[in-house]
Design a protein that fits this description.
Layout lengths: L1 H12 L8 H21 L4 H25 L7 H6 L5 H28 L11 H25 L3 H15 L6 H5 L4 H7 L6 H14 L5 H25 L3 H4 L1
């Protein structure tokens, strides 16, 4: 059911559109190209290096950011379905997650085009992108469940999550290169760049961006993501056990 509903969401969104879901890919391609041309000049980096870096970061961030923002309204937006259909709340969580997976798959077309234009030093480590995405998806599921449940009870949460996601976009190495600042000859800049490690979004970005760009794998990112996954699902199971029956009343 959740797979069918998620697919119908995309079909309904682009109903009567000539090229349909291809608008997702076109929008991503235009945004990445414009920002890549701008920030490669601002940071003094070759376009062949910075554009794929920014593109992969943007594609991953689109998945993460949408899981948080849309997750805050996952139950609110499905009020009618929740009240009329006696189904577990997990259906709505999986429906949203599946929809974001389809968006992510569309945006990957931009990545493959850039690989043809700017070849990257890929190796067998690119296969790590698969378990990395699965790990990000697992975290997306518990975030949707927890934030969605809290937002159903407290309707001020969705605007807060949108502000946080927008802020974290600029604080996460997406348009700027973390390694460039970390290796800066200025010791002050290099030291402050290490503060980016505090940002949990950075670790999820790196576990999939490094294999997709053929960069050396930093395994501490995987350890951090694994710890967040365990802790997050512990919170999600607690919320699910204690508050799932109240969602239909709160909406």
């Amino acid at each position: 059911m959740w797979a069918h509903l998620g697919w119908q969401d995309i079909k309904q969104r682009y109903r009567r559109s000539v090229i349909g879901p291809l608008w997702i890919t076109i929008s991503m391609a235009v945004t990445v190209t414009a920002l890549g041309l701008l920030y490669s000049q601002l940071f003094g980096q070759p376009l062949a290096e910075h554009l794929p870096y920014l593109a992969v970061g943007f594609i991953i961030w689109g998945f993460i950011g949408n899981c948080v923002n849309d997750g805050a309204e996952v139950f609110i937006s499905n009020e009618g379905l929740i009240k009329q259909l006696p189904a577990p709340v997990s259906i709505h969580v999986l429906r949203l997650l599946w929809r974001q997976v389809l968006f992510f798959a569309h945006n990957l077309a931009v990545y493959f085009v850039l690989l043809l234009i700017f070849p990257q030093p890929l190796s067998w480590t690119i296969l790590l992108a698969i378990p990395a995405f699965v790990l990000i998806g697992l975290n997306g599921a518990w975030v949707i469940l927890v934030v969605g449940t809290i937002s159903t009870r407290f309707r001020d949460i969705p605007p807060v999550t949108q502000s946080i996601v927008q802020l974290m976009f600029f604080m996460t190495p997406i348009v700027w290169n973390y390694d460039q600042f970390k290796s800066s000859p200025n010791p002050v800049i290099a030291e402050r760049a290490k503060l980016a490690e505090i940002n949990p979004f950075m670790h999820f970005l790196e576990i999939i961006r490094q294999p997709m760009l053929g960069s050396p794998i930093a395994w501490h990112h995987w350890l951090v993501c694994g710890a967040i996954t365990v802790l997050g699902w512990a919170v999600a199971l607690f919320v699910l056990r204690n508050y799932r029956a109240r969602v239909s009343y709160w909406v």
